[in-house]
Design goal:
alpha/beta, 5-stranded parallel sheet, two-stranded antiparallel ribbon, 9 helices, about 55% helix
Length: about 280
Amino acid sequence: MAPIIDQLVDKLKGTVDKLEARVAELEARLEGRDGTSSSPASDDGVRMIIMGPPGAGKGTQAPRIKDKYRVCHLATGDMLREQVSKKTELGRQAKKIMDQGGLVSDEIMVNMIKHELENNTECKNGFILDGFPRTVAQAERLDSMLSPRSQTLQHAVELQIDDGLLVSRITGRLIHPASGRSYHKIFNPPKEEMKDDVTGEPLIQRSDDNADTLKKRLSTYHDQTGPVVGYYQRTGIWRGIDASQEPGQVWKSLLGIFNDDKSSVSAQAGNLMSKLGLQK
């Protein structure tokens, strides 16, 4: 029986080594290499998706994560709208589909994301995917995309809110096109009417931010994206946040998820080391 026990101990030690490495990665990300910054280490930062129906607050929270952790924010809706404004072939196809409240093909979305991850220098520290994946098939394609890079998704955060609250949110939403920052006429107004707080540039109200289009978009979201939640729940990286709270509280909840991730991995490593008698 001794060889079997030895094999088990070796396997557990290997698990401890992996957990310790994960703890080191999280500490580097949350504290910074010099111990004074909350930004991630430059070689391996945050890799996450932020999910939620239209108007849940992704456009408010994702830029804050981007600034804090120095990662790229890939908002697929904004990327598609840029193609529409440039009147590219992809843009013409996307406009027709989006006007009907539908979703563009997986192939188009995957290729757009892959191009950004490979060519956008801001993505070297990690990324926030906003609006992708929206289907289980896209989630599987994302895993396959990251695998050759020896990477995995670390967080799948869902901003949860009742559909009934979204109509008032959406119809009052204001957008800064260049950055993706979002405001609301009532709930989160800019400091100066119709001007971005940071640049002073004009804000816009998107043409598809109306009640009729919203209902179609919500139906599409629930039908096609709902199963993605189950996909990431099974992997253990899904977390839900009450998005009906004011933006500052939602932000605190997001930071709590990152801190909980670090604490959870550290605890797992400590428990295993204690059982093996390896605690220092």
